[in-house]
Amino acid sequence: MLAEDASFTVTHVHPMRTLDGITLPHVLRFLRFVTLPGKKKMAARIHGGAGAGAATALSTFNPKKLVAPSRTNLPAARSSKRCIVAAAGSDASKSLRVGHSQKLIANAAVATKAETSATTGTGHELLLFEALQEGLEEEMDRDPRVCVMGEDVGHYGGSYKVTKGLADKFGDLRVLDTPICENAFTGMGIGAAMTGLRPVIEGMNMGFLLLAFNQISNNCGMLHYTSGGQFTIPVVIRGPGGVGRQLGAEHSQRLESYFQSIPGIQMVACSTPYNAKGLMKAAIRSENPVILFEHVLLYNLKEKIPDEEYICNLEEAEMVRPGEHITILTYSRMRYHVMQAAKTLVNKGYDPEVIDIRSLKPFDLYTIGNSVKKTHRVLIVEECMRTGGIGASLTAAINENFHDYLDAPVMCLSSQDVPTPYAGTLEEWTVVQPAQIVTAVEQLCQ
Amino acid sequence: MATAFSATLPLHGSSQENRLLLPPTRLPPPSSFLGSTRSLPIRRLNHAHAARRSPVVAVQEIVKEKKPTNSLLITKEEGLVLYEDMILGRSFEDMCAQMYYRGKMFGFVHLYNGQEAVSTGFIKLLTKSDSVVSTYRDHVHALSKGVSARAVMSELFGKVTGCCRGQGGSMHMFSKEHNMLGGFAFIGEGIPVATGAAFTSKYKREVLKQDCDDVTVAFFGDGTCNNGQFYECLNMAALYKLPIIFVVENNLWAIGMSHLRSTSDPEIWKKGPAFGMPGVHVDGMDVLKVREVAKEAVSRARRGEGPTLVECETYRFRGHSLADPDELRDAAEKAKYAARDPITALKKYLIENKLANEGELKTIEKKIDDLVEEAVEFADASPQPGRSQLLENVFADPKGFGIGPDGRYRCEDPKFTEGTAQV
């Protein structure tokens, strides 16, 4: 059902238990994060046990050594099978049994070496949704004005468990279960922000925020300006978006392209547990309204993050893999497809520089520009639609600012302008796959 | 739910085709209110007098019949405050019309003539820390809340001295100092913001443990009552028992759309009980009636008993906006409401009850005329916004414009403060 050299399946999926012990079949689906392998067989890397071995593998990732994939110290199950396990939500360590059923995607969160503290050996490992929760909880502890509102964020713990346990700790008013009325509760969050609170508004799926477009565009983006600067709107609007696993067209939307024109807002997309926590905290502390885009398929990425407090800069991009031949700009889930393709490319002798742009609005033209000036070739890989997506804007920005430095036209790989189909095969073809990325790089580097 | 509002009698002597004429079977007790709507049984609709049993009914005629003459609703001071506020609203709006036709202000300008009783009746009961949220017809709400006439007029002229530095315009009157939370161009989009302000009040009390009993009053029109945001907010406000009052200024017309042509059940006050809050109908051309209803609704909210929906039957003497030729409305209808001009009614009341004499009222009118003239002069003399203001308030933290190719934040570029930076 997937590309021809796919040789993976999902093995055990560890059921997620909610607070009341009921399993969530629909959540299980999201946990089957499968990526396509390249033509080479790769050993599954395991993040397991005390994490030391695997974490080291993660953090001291040396791009020059890509050709020979490093083995971990832990017994690696040899197979071409690769799968993501939904580790049971709350207790990361318990799920770290090394075993056939607990393998994690190897190329998750690779090479964030500039930004993890795992080099110091301290830190703790957790999943991306836990990182978001940690960031949120720390900010709620720090500032009593920070509150959460959204559907099922309270007693249910959030449909992706980002707010699990927070209602017990902070109470029903601070972690507010709203009725299903996105426009009104987003507006309510905006009104609360104008009068002194700092709400974090959750859209259960980013697509639902289409119902809140009136409030996001007119009030969230504009009121600071139309009030002559009198009222600030320090809201964070967050939620999962992107193409999942056969979720259907409406639950697979990429709203960053719709929101990007709204003046007065910032948009960031997280892709690793490290930057998820950092961006969450930075967004909450920011006086501007920030929309934080998460991805349905990335919630179970595991990474070791620092114990000490940190935040990520909202306006900066992240260097994932320095290189010389070509700049690949990407964000969110496509980062992993790009890194997957990067392995193949390295084997073929290319040296791609991969940048996770993170800040979708505004673009970090400094990091991007420096890269373009070095490599002279740009490939943008995104999950937005071809028309009017983030990639389209980024292409324009690069052409405008760095035209003189380009040796080839900027190429942008985006999703097809197609409502995401339900069928797995069709869905795969709407989204950019690593093989396409490899082909594009080869083409650009001729 | 502690209270609902009682009474029944029809308005001002005339029956409207859209009003349920309730037979005057009993005199309403002057200022007592019925118990919770929830405890009343479901009414049988085929009963001839079913309306009498409806859980929440209109409030009428609190003032007119029952008060003995030596017990007035207002004192002299209060009366003069109300009168001055309504005169200010009327004069200001008349001046706006003049200025518009002289080319001093542009765009959409929506005037409030005729509806002053609603604004004055509610807002003069509020404290400075209470919040008001309005629509595009917001000049008078801003003025009643305390924003100076100078600031509002300058804003209309688009000058820097305007309450929003000229960036908002007629439809966006904001004032942090006076807790005027706007001014919204799209109908209905202010109601969630008002709900949020009420939420903050509750949050401050219950989470932050502060002493806060601020209420929020949201004003909007009959057209808005067919909009989803209205219903969503009624639900949330009642659910969370937010200290908010939803005030419907039912002037029967949404631009050219008659309320009766667009609404399946035109009696908006009935929609309150559907969500679990009292719904009250009041004569919005009589400031004292509005004030009585407002007192109860505001104190309900302050006590933490939750929201109230108040429908004020009112009328705008002018068109929807200054661009509206106002051809659809029947002259007879306009004349009927013109005869119920709230300012004339209050003046009559004050004089008849010996609370003020003609001279005092004339002094107030003169004072307001001077104030409005002075506001126009001030606005005329104020400078227009310079280029430097262009980029300034887009973000509270201008780092939001991002990092430019040279590595510096765009807002650090000296051209940013000039308003000419590339952002």
TrEMBL record, chain A:
Keywords for this protein: Oxidoreductase, Pyruvate, Thiamine pyrophosphate
InterPro entries: THDP-binding (IPR029061), Transketo_C/PFOR_II (IPR009014), Transketolase-like_Pyr-bd (IPR005475), Transketolase_C (IPR033248)
Pfam families tied to this protein: Transket_pyr, Transketolase_C
Domain of life: Eukaryota
Reactions it catalyzes: N(6)-[(R)-lipoyl]-L-lysyl-[protein] + pyruvate + H(+) = N(6)-[(R)-S(8)-acetyldihydrolipoyl]-L-lysyl-[protein] + CO2
EC numbers, comma separated: 1.2.4.1
Keyword Cell membrane: no
Cofactor section: thiamine diphosphate
Domain spans labelled Transketolase-like pyrimidine-binding: 126-301
CDD domains per record: TPP_PYR_E1-PDHc-beta_like
PANTHER family on file: PYRUVATE DEHYDROGENASE E1 COMPONENT BETA SUBUNIT, PYRUVATE DEHYDROGENASE E1 COMPONENT SUBUNIT BETA
NCBIfam families to which the protein is assigned, alphabetical: PRK09212.1
Record's function text: The pyruvate dehydrogenase complex catalyzes the overall conversion of pyruvate to acetyl-CoA and CO(2). It contains multiple copies of three enzymatic components: pyruvate dehydrogenase (E1), dihydrolipoamide acetyltransferase (E2) and lipoamide dehydrogenase (E3).
Designated name of the protein: pyruvate dehydrogenase (acetyl-transferring)
Source species: Brassica napus
UniProtKB/TrEMBL annotation, chain B:
Keyword rRNA-binding: no
Keywords assigned by UniProt, alphabetized: Coiled coil, Oxidoreductase, Pyruvate, Thiamine pyrophosphate
A molecular-function term among this protein's GO annotations: pyruvate dehydrogenase (acetyl-transferring) activity
Pfam families: E1_dh
Coiled-coil features, chain-numbered ranges: 354-381
Class of this enzyme: oxidoreductase
Domain Dehydrogenase E1 component: 85-385
Gene Ontology BP term (one): pyruvate decarboxylation to acetyl-CoA
Reported cofactor(s): thiamine diphosphate
Catalytic activity: N(6)-[(R)-lipoyl]-L-lysyl-[protein] + pyruvate + H(+) = N(6)-[(R)-S(8)-acetyldihydrolipoyl]-L-lysyl-[protein] + CO2
Function, in words: The pyruvate dehydrogenase complex catalyzes the overall conversion of pyruvate to acetyl-CoA and CO(2). It contains multiple copies of three enzymatic components: pyruvate dehydrogenase (E1), dihydrolipoamide acetyltransferase (E2) and lipoamide dehydrogenase (E3).
Protein name, UniProt field: Pyruvate dehydrogenase E1 component subunit alpha
The species this protein was found in: Brassica napus
Underlying gene: BnaC08g46110D
